[in-house]
Amino acid sequence: MQKINPRILLAVILIPMGLIIAMVPEDATSNRKVSAEEILQEIASGSQFVSPDEVAGMLVENNPVLQLIDVRSSNEYENFSLPGAVNIPLTDILSPEWRDILDQDVKINIFYSNGSVHANEAWLLTRQQGYINNYVLQGGLNYWMEAIVNPEPPSDLSPNEEFARYDFRRAVNSALGGETVERTAEAPPPPAMPAIRPRERTPVVQGGC
Fold it and tell me: How many domains does the chain have?
């Protein structure tokens, strides 16, 4: 399975960053809470990404804090979407009608598009406004199909962890309505992933010198 090169992904994000910021209305940028330097640090660390395995696990568990947000067009959303996803097209991401969903500390919002570019743009625009608890599905739907729906079987010499990951992904696909498959080998479950929890807003201190 081909892995995403972090440097290439970082370049794809950074190149259009100036254009995206320029697209934000002036009245929206006037109260911007997060500086460009802070955003660049988060982009460099990749902290905005959530892996397909993490999302799949949350879906199977019916984790109540998960909220998937499809930033593609309504036509693309109607043709195919992940379970329970809400459609907020990228062009509407800063619309006041969606602010209560995107600017909150109760849910974990995970943006996705076909790849990662448009979802990253949605994250960047909302992060610039100071919104928290918004993330990006790593690799988008393209990587989801590759990793979860059609995972590549491990070779016979692969470690148990690879068999466990493969079995986990096939089991998830079955649980989400895909083809039912048998386990390829007896293996321990995939390593536990750190739980994603909503962050609370940082109080804004008024006044001072």
Answer: 2
Which residue segment(s) compose the domain that 120 sits in?
6-26+33-139
Residue ranges of E strands in the chain:
49-50, 66-70, 86-87, 108-112, 134-137
Q: Which two tokens stand for residue 136?
A: 């990006």
Q: Are 67 and 159 in the same domain? A: no
Are 88 and 101 in contact by the 8 Å Cβ rule? The answer is yes
Q: Which two tokens stand for residue 18?
A: 């100036």
102 and 184 in one domain?
no
Phi, psi of 201 (to 5 degrees): -65, 145
The answer to whether residues 48 and 139 touch, using CB atoms and an 8 Å cutoff, is: no
Query: 176 and 104 in one domain?
Result: no
Q: Classify 109 as helix, strand or coil.
A: strand
Helix, strand, coil % (nearest 5) of the chain?
45, 10, 45
90 lies in some domain: yes
Relative orientation angle of helices 160-175 and 52-60, to the nearest 10 degrees = 50
Six token digits for residue 41: 């640090």
* Span 123-165, pLDDT tens digits: 999 999 999 999 999 999 999 999 999 999 999 999 999 999 9
